[in-house]
Amino acid sequence: MTDLTNLLDLDPAQLVAYCGELGEKPFRAKQLQRWIHQFGASDFDAMSDLAKSLREKLKTRAFIASPAIISDHTSTDGTRKWLIDVGQGNAVETVFIPEENRGTLCISTQAGCAVNCRFCSTGKQGFNRNLSVAEIIGQLWMAEFALRQTKGIEPGPKGERQITNVVMMGMGEPLLNYEPTVTALKLMLDDNAYGLSRRRVTLSTSGVVPMIDKLGHDCPVALAVSLHASNDALRDGLVPLNKKYPLVELMAACKRYLEFAPRDFVTFEYCMLDGVNDTDQCARELIALVKHSAHPVNCKFNLIPFNPFPESGLTRSNNIRIKAFAQILVDAGIVTTIRKTRGDDIDAACGQLAGEVQDRTKVQERMKKMAEYQEKYGKDFGRIVEIS
Ligand code: SF4
């Protein structure tokens, strides 16, 4: 298989070039792309409008495959989580979150993560490797057609689309795996692939300032920033990348990004950590930061109740504190939401135990650990908790 090209690795322009190498016209690339990304086809023989000679050529030179699935579970609330094998004992998570008017897929861009945020279990496992384009877009490809199959919806543009929104908020820092991430984004947006609007694709970053600028030029999509602190001293300890790109630079980059962004605001994610970043003073500092600093940024806040894990030494702010914190921001005119802690009855909350998933033999261990954690932290650990 190694000499063959995985066509999931190619963006629209690369697919045209690839077809050119095979002596084919550019429109063949569009046809091929539609078969792959709109019909979920992986069998060249099924691509009925391609010439037989081209199908035969492709069979000897290419293949279409997303990474193997280790596990696939659906929660009683409809959340569906896949654990995906990315080789060498590494696994990443892909999560589908159904809501009334949309279906959101949360995808990963790296196995592990080098940023090492203090509140993140992925960070604790360290960096393993960057995912390829096929491994990133393959999560969307696999999930869309698996969801359709479950519901008996036909593939192709006529079938009801299951995934309407994508968030790059799974494992990894997408801007530290820039090229494959942007290639995957281009496929998400392309009309001959998924045709998602830029507003419905969100990239979440811990604040890699130069790459935020580059993304604004190359492929602007909605931007979320993992902020988590209201001043540099606090953020240095929670998001170590802040030492390299402090808040003043991050805010300036966000402001510049908004010139290109499909939305007129940046979403700031803020993990609520008991006694660490959840005081009234922190809320007031945030207001000063986003409204009255040298680089005010039009923004929304998404407050995330922390899912504790033992090694973090951190605990979740209580619901009363979270609501009070939100109210201070709201009173200052900042749109603020409190995220439901996404999780389910079949697995841990989003990214919660990712650091402990090294290979498929550990899945059982992981489930056992989940039960232990629930005993220790209460039955809601890893479950969706409605607090608004
Ligand atoms: S929060 Fe994001 S950037 Fe920070 S360690 Fe976790 S995956 Fe990496």
Structure characterization notes:
The protein has helices at residues 12-21, 26-38, 52-61, 121-124, 133-151, 178-189, 209-218, 232-238, 247-257, 280-291, 319-331, 363-377, and strands spanning 5-6, 62-63, 69-74, 80-85, 91-99, 102-106, 110-112, 127-130, 165-168, 201-205, 222-226, 266-272, 299-305, 335-338. With 388 residues, it is α/β, with parallel strands linked by helices. The chain has 2 domains: 5-63, DNA polymerase, domain 1 (Orthogonal Bundle), CATH 1.10.150; 69-371, Alpha-Beta Barrel (TIM Barrel). A 10-stranded mixed beta sheet has the order 3-4-5-6-9-10-11-12-13-14, with helices on one face. A two-stranded parallel sheet has the order 1-2. Residues 113, 115-117, 120, 122-123, 171-173, 206, 226 line the site of iron/sulfur cluster.
Estimate what percentage of residues fall within beta strands: 15-25%
Bound molecules: iron/sulfur cluster
Q: Globular, elongated, flat, extended or rod-shaped: what is the shape?
A: elongated
CATH superfamily of the largest domain: Aldolase class I
- Number of E strands: 14
Instruction: Name the helicity range.
Output: 25-40%
Instruction: Give me the Rg, rounded.
Output: 21 Å
Order of strands across the main sheet = 3-4-5-6-9-10-11-12-13-14
Name the helix and strand elements from N-terminus to C-terminus, one letter apiece: EHHHEEEEEEHEHEHEHEHHEHEHEH
Number of domains: 2
Count of runs of 4 or more consecutive helical residues = 12
Mean pLDDT: 88
CATH class of the largest domain: Alpha Beta
